[in-house]
Amino acid sequence: MRFEVWAPGATRMTLHCGDVTHALTRDPRRPGWWTGEAEAEDGTRYGFAVDDGPVLPDPRSRRQPQGPDGPSAVVDHGRYAWQADWSGRGLPGAVLYELHMGTYTREGTLDAAAERLDHLAELGVTHVELMPLCPFPGRHGWGYEGVAPWAVHEPYGGPEALKRFVDRAHTLGLGVVLDVVHNHLGPSGNHLPAFGPYFTTTHHTPWGAAVNLDAPGSDEVRAYLIGSALSWLRDYRLDGLRLDAVHALHDTRAVHFLEELSSAVDALAVELGRPLFLIAESDLNDPRLITPRAEHGLGVHAQWDDDFHHALHTTLTGESRGYYEDFAGAPLAALAKTLTGGFFHDGTYSAFRGRSHGRPLDRTRVSAHRLLGYAQTHDQVGNRARGDRLSASLSPGLLACAATLVLTSPFTPMLFMGEEWAAGTPWQFFTDHTDPGLADAVRRGRRREFAAQGWAAEEVPDPQDPATRERSCLDWSEPERAPHARVLAWYRELIALRRAHPDLSDPDLEDVKVTYDEHARWLAFRRGDVRIAVNLAKEPTRIPLGIDHARVLAAWEPVPPPDASGALTVPGESCVVLTQV
């Protein structure tokens, strides 16, 4: 088997394969690369030593059986016999479901999660979006401190388990999206700096050194990250990737890393003959991110829309601290603006940032399916002091209203696991750092962060306490009992409506018409022949729809038809979906 590694500063490289050591030679065609051959097969352990230093895992390791600090293992992707005949499932018309592997089930494994995929198929979602799966020290964590971006975390089951999960999902008609982190690596178990200039001090991120995308040596670093992305899509048959915090990808080159990545993914889609897509997390509100490359954009296929979330969250809860302050003055107006324009901050002043922010979307050119809309995500739940979901403070009626606004919006909807049944379990920030100093620093940093918001230290869960992760696991007995069963039925009904009525999946922002009353706390909007009315007040209210002949498609509480004036009386904390007849 041929082994290769990029180590441009090395004077000597050795391969330690099994019990045999081999001297590698420079590749005369590729500067900085070292190559050699050794007897190996699937499962063979190996590593590299730079200038007679310690044996380190392969930067492109496909498997780390003993964790990030142990030897790498050879993976023969051709050994797996795929069962599903899968032609792919693209993003237009999709409904996504964000899932954390370590808490979706109490077992916290890919195989255990695969046994629960029937629930998602029955719910009606189209894609499962997995939070990061790359190896990190310890067993449990969110996954954003992974250090081996070509491998699968061994406690989750490793590479074969991910293939079994994808195969099962595809058999059920579900696409699979993976969250990948290109902007940083975790602080523990990261051995890349020993091999080459993977990081740069030219830029900085909130998580440490920035990945080298534009300094000397960045050609190979970019190729390393793109190769990892393509490997997930090709070797594991994934349908898309979610790109974490792309605003932290610092790149001053003329061809941005994201443009290069989107071009490579589009080329792979042609090669494989099935749709592939990229979804970015970005707080820049810059339409160029999701504008096609042919129109001088970066060509990313979609992005999370936090403005929609913030407007919706503020409308539902009345919260006004932090970034919610920009939306709290007139939350229904903010919500109406995002429903029709995508972004709330489109060049407007942001008090939270102390400056103007964003740029308008061209509604005639940008399809709304390129924006993901959601009421909850791992960030918006887990980054709260106690990891409390909306279900901890809102009535079932208001939760139904939130679901209605997400699932009838013009955006690509995304749900966070357990949301569909108003899960009573929190989802908290948890870690399992094996370095005692790092563990203590994370614990103290978390408490210091929330102390500034008035939280006492003992009120903030200890991330290192195993009980914090245990509390965050879904309780699969809940969907069968009240009030969870009713909320679940409502989600299923809304998703079925979205699939059955083309107007609800029409991504034309110009066709969305919204009316609202800030004081009375109601909002109504039109999607073609479909009308959606939401009453967030406790008391019934009359909402002028302007139509007197309509058929109710779904209602949280029973509602009479519109009266002769075209007004609809909606019960308190309730919602209704109608179609014009």
Automatic annotation (TrEMBL):
InterPro entries: DUF3459, GH, GH13_cat_dom, Ig-like_fold, Ig_E-set, Trehalose_TreZ, Trehalose_TreZ_E-set_sf. Residues 102-446 form the Glycosyl hydrolase family 13 catalytic domain. SUPFAM superfamilies: (Trans)glycosidases (SSF51445), E set domains (SSF81296). It is an enzyme of class 3 (hydrolase). The gene is treZ. One of its GO terms (cellular component) is cytoplasm. This is Malto-oligosyltrehalose trehalohydrolase. Belongs to the glycosyl hydrolase 13 family. Keywords: Carbohydrate metabolism, Cytoplasm, Glycosidase, Hydrolase. Pathway: Glycan biosynthesis; trehalose biosynthesis. One of its GO terms (molecular function) is 4-alpha-D-(1->4)-alpha-D-glucanotrehalose trehalohydrolase activity. Substrate binds at residues 242-247, 306-310, 378-383. It catalyses: hydrolysis of (1->4)-alpha-D-glucosidic linkage in 4-alpha-D-[(1->4)-alpha-D-glucanosyl]n trehalose to yield trehalose and (1->4)-alpha-D-glucan. Pfam families: Alpha-amylase, DUF3459. NCBIfam families: trehalose_TreZ. It is found in: Cytoplasm. The record marks D379 as: Transition state stabilizer. Its EC number is 3.2.1.141. It comes from Streptomyces nodosus.
